[in-house]
Amino acid sequence: MSRVLAIALLLLVAVPSAAFAREGEAGFINLDSSLLIQMLNFGLLLAVLWRFLYRPLLAKMEERSQAIRKSLEEAQAARAEAQREREEHAARIRAAHAEAQAIRAAALTEAAEEQRRLVEAARAEAARLVESAKAELEQDVRRARQQLRREVSDLAIDVAERLIKKSLRDEDHRRVVEDAITRMQNVN
Questions:
Q1: 20 to 30 A from 70, CA-CA: which of 45, 86, 126, 148?
Q2: DSSP label at 23?
Q3: Rounded to whole angstroms, how far apart are CA atoms 11 and 23?
Q4: Where are the domains of the chain?
Q5: pLDDT in tens, 131-168
């Protein structure tokens, strides 16, 4: 606005001074009453243009500047919001990774504990089976010894009966003893 007024003032002052400088010559501008009318017309034209053209143009330009400023602010706010959301998502992803790692570590710990428990149970079962086998083996040995005693006693009784029934000579003694030893070896 101040530029337009400065230009108009310059024209109003410069034109008449140029006209006065050429007073004697027939020039472009004559200093008579028409100059005042032209100046008045020019002033009215400036006022009308100012009122109906320049002010609405300035208002439109200001409105457009405001809209651009507003759009830039909205874009900046949207950019900031997008950055905030990006950071939020990154934080959520980091939290999800940390949670997954914790779950994985818990699962590995639980699996190791389960494995340890199963190994201990297997060892206990193996020890129980070994003890059971030892007990069964001891029983079998006891039974075999008892049976062997019975057979030895039966054999001794049988030998004694034979000896009593006949009188034995040295050869008979040896044969009976060898026969008993053979029977004992067959039993084992």
A1: 86
A2: T
A3: 18
A4: 138-187
A5: 999 999 999 988 988 888 788 878 777 777 776 666 55
